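hiii so um. not sure if this is the right channel but i have a protein structure encoded as tokens and i wanna go backwards to a sequence. like what aa goes where. can anyone help
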């Protein structure tokens, strides 16, 4: 994608506050839950629907990339426990796997299959850090779902300015059911709960990208609905 003419980084306040809530949740409150959910361990029926949904979404996103990724540098933005990073490396990619949660990064490193460590570099920190370099592709599965459309658009602009190919990412779709759940959830205290997912409509997000002067064209590439897991995949291309 073409380099932007001005700084596209999200405004420090909103992005940083949300990022810090996400870090606290995944690094302290829910580490063991996500470790179990992303393993082969038995889980409840509700969490099994989430596990199936995430597996389906990961496959849908990976289908946007070539089977042979040798020579390509790929950012797994929000790598979690490392499932996406491992599959990218298995295709031959040079993977930088970044997550805001050091605890999840540690799990991802421990789980990486033998033969792949040389292809994946794990790093705890902000996926938008300027020193991460440039990429051929970016994958961001369920790592941008907590940000409002202005911060999301600017984050995509920042990533797009460093990416030669496309950015494949997910959002919570703006459906009547999810919007009702979102508005209901805002009525209750949130002390120990997960950060709030913010639903997005592709057309509104494209307008936000335009206002942020972020380059690229946004296109929906499929939705996955599996019990309590509902997610929309999008791709931003030059």
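sure thing!! here u go:
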């Amino acid at each position: 994608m073409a380099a932007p003419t001005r700084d596209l980084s999200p405004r420090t306040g909103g992005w940083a506050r949300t990022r810090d809530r996400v870090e606290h949740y995944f690094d302290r409150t829910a580490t063991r839950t996500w470790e179990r959910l992303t393993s082969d361990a038995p889980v409840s029926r509700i969490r099994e629907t989430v596990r199936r949904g995430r597996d389906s979404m990961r496959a849908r996103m990976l289908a946007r990339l070539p089977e042979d990724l040798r020579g390509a540098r790929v950012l797994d933005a929000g790598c979690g426990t490392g499932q996406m990073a491992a599959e990218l490396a298995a295709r031959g990619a040079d993977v930088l796997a970044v997550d805001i949660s050091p605890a999840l990064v540690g799990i991802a490193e421990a789980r990486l299959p033998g033969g792949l460590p040389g292809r994946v570099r794990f790093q705890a920190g902000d996926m938008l850090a300027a020193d991460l370099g440039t990429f051929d592709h970016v994958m961001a599965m369920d790592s941008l779902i907590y940000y409002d459309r202005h911060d999301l658009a600017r984050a995509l602009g920042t990533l797009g300015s460093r990416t030669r190919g496309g950015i494949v990412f997910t959002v919570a779709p703006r459906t009547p059911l999810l919007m009702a759940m979102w508005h209901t959830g805002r009525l209750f205290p949130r002390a120990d709960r997960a950060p709030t997912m913010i639903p997005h409509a592709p057309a509104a997000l494209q307008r936000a990208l335009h206002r942020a002067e972020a380059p690229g064209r946004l296109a929906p590439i499929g939705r996955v609905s599996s019990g309590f897991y509902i997610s929309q995949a999008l791709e931003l291309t030059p």
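oh and Helices lie at 12-29, 31-37, 45-62, 83-90, 102-111, 149-160, 176-185, 202-211.
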